[in-house]
Amino acid sequence: MQRKHTTDYKPKDFAELLNVSVKTLQRWDREGILVAKRTPTNRRYYTYNQYLEYKGINENKQDKQNVVYTRVSTNNQTDDLKNQAEFLLNYTASKGMIIDEIIKDVGRGLNYNRKHWNKLINDCMENKIDTIVVSHKDRFIRFGFEWFERFLRKFGVR
What we know:
By secondary structure, the chain is an alpha/beta fold. It has 7 helices and 6 strands, in the order βααββαβαβαβαα.
């Protein structure tokens, strides 16, 4: 089942996403390498599916992972990290969910520079993640959980 994304990108945003210049996108469009979509007024735009295609990402749900994400604020709380993981594994097993990966992070909830959390967000944007399971929303992010939930939903993440 292919999921449709409503995300359309302006050339500037798409170029930034691909880490190329707008001029490169224009050249690729002319040469047929990555053909832009056109609005009725002939403006270029790009779609999420074009992003996946460029990155070589298959949007097949079977390839997507279910992950458990755990976080504590300091290294002194590693026992709590183990308890979170154990609780979530028991919970997901009781629901019949298969977990592909357990992600353990140590860092403050207000810190957006958590190595494993940033990799998880990137994996979501590359359509590699189906479901993220957390013990409580503040374990994922201290403030703005609803925004992140809505953002990740655009990439098909539950």
